[in-house]
């Protein structure tokens, strides 16, 4: 049975946790030795495989592709291909290379990243050969995740950020995107998170604890929960050298975001960060002026 229209709207979750596929109006049953034809226009454009767009013969690997797109969106909050018109979307599906999910969500399991990218290969022959093969790889990924243990849930992370003034300009959708593109880490006292003159490509947001800021061994400042550091490289637009050293005063929890991941984020997410960074910059300039005035 080939469904031909796998998408989030056709996947139902029951109260008991069972997952069911609905809307088989576009499906047909494939039999050995029987030729089939595809109905023109069947499928939802964003989830259609390249062979559906080209009106070629399709197999169960078309459904594997569409489910791969569903997984991509569930894991990253975005579609692998986005465009303003159906023609542009079709061109992207046929010709563009999508960003790997792990680049949009750095803490994603590499195995899940590989499974999704294999499922949405443009060439059906490069995808999983059977649903059984697909299922075995997913089982292996989930086993790995269970063995590695779980930190705070995404919902806990969302609620933690929602209460912080830094994120006051983020709507819920943009804030969920922040959760997806970030990595959360717990570090012990004395850990150097950033060392001056080292190369870097990410910035940090302090969730729990305090960090000290030093330059050439001299204490400059202390950052408390809700503060950020290392964000200058995001504005520089490239990997650069750190200008200060940031050290954990006690045990801390930080949220790390790669600069490239933020540049690939949605406009709403980037605008939220730009506004927040601007408030941080103004506050730092104000504090610097007060310190200078005090010395005068």
Provide a quick synopsis of the model.
The protein has about 300 residues and is α+β, with helices and mostly antiparallel strands. Helices cover about 40% and strands about 15% of the residues. The N and C termini lie far apart (about 80 Å).
Molecular structure report:
There is one protein chain. The chain is α+β, with helices and mostly antiparallel strands and 296 residues long. It contains eleven helices and twelve strands. The chain has helices at 50-53, 60-76, 86-95, 101-104, 110-119, 131-148, 154-162, 172-181, 232-236, 259-263, 267-295; strands spanning 11-13, 19-21, 182-187, 192-194, 199-200, 202-208, 211-215, 218-223, 228-229, 240-241, 245-248, 252-258. Strands 3-12-6-9 form a four-stranded antiparallel sheet. The longest helix has 29 residues, at 267-295. Residues 31-42 have low confidence and may be disordered.
When the domains are counted, the total is: 2
Number of strands: 12
pLDDT under 50 segments (min length 5)? 31-42
Mean pLDDT: 84
Note the overall shape: elongated
CATH domain topology of the largest domain? Jelly Rolls
SS element count, helices? 11
Find the structural class using helix and strand composition.
Answer: alpha+beta
What would CATH call the class of the largest domain? Answer: Mainly Beta
- Secondary-structure element sequence? EEHHHHHHHHEEEEEEEHEEEHH
CATH superfamily of the largest domain: Jelly Rolls
For the largest beta-sheet, the strand count, sense and barrel status come to: 4 strands, antiparallel
Radius of gyration: 24 Å
Q: Strand order within the widest sheet? A: 3-12-6-9
Helix content: 40-55%
For the record, the CATH architecture of the largest domain stands as Sandwich
Alpha-carbon distance between the two ends: 80 Å
Instruction: Estimate what percentage of residues fall within beta strands.
Output: 15-25%
């Amino acid at each position: 049975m080939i469904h031909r229209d796998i998408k989030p709207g056709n996947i139902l979750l029951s109260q008991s946790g069972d997952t069911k596929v609905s809307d088989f109006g576009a499906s047909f049953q494939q039999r050995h030795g029987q030729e089939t034809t595809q109905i023109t226009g069947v499928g939802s454009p964003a989830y259609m495989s390249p062979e559906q767009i080209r009106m070629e013969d399709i197999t169960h690997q078309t459904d594997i592709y569409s489910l791969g797109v569903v997984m991509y969106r569930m894991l990253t909050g975005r579609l692998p291909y986005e465009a303003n018109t159906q023609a542009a979307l079709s061109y992207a599906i046929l010709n563009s290379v999508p960003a790997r999910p792990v680049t949009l969500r750095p803490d994603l399991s590499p195995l899940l990243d590989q499974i999704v990218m294999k499922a949405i290969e443009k060439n059906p022959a490069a995808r999983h050969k059977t649903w059984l093969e697909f299922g075995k790889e997913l089982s292996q990924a989930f086993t790995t995740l269970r063995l590695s243990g779980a930190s705070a849930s995404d919902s806990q992370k969302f609620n933690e950020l929602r209460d912080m003034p830094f994120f006051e300009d983020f709507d819920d959708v943009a804030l969920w995107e922040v959760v997806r593109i970030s990595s959360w880490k717990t570090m012990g006292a004395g850990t150097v998170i950033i060392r001056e003159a080292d190369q870097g490509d990410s910035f940090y947001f302090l969730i729990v604890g305090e960090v000290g800021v030093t330059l050439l061994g001299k204490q400059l400042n202390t950052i408390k929960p809700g503060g950020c550091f290392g964000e200058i490289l995001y504005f520089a637009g490239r990997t650069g050298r750190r200008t200060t050293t940031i050290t954990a005063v006690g045990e801390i929890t930080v949220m790390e975001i790669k600069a490239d991941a933020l540049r690939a984020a949605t406009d709403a997410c980037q605008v939220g960060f730009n506004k927040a960074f601007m408030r941080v910059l103004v506050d730092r300039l104000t504090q610097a002026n007060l310190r200078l005035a005090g010395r005068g």
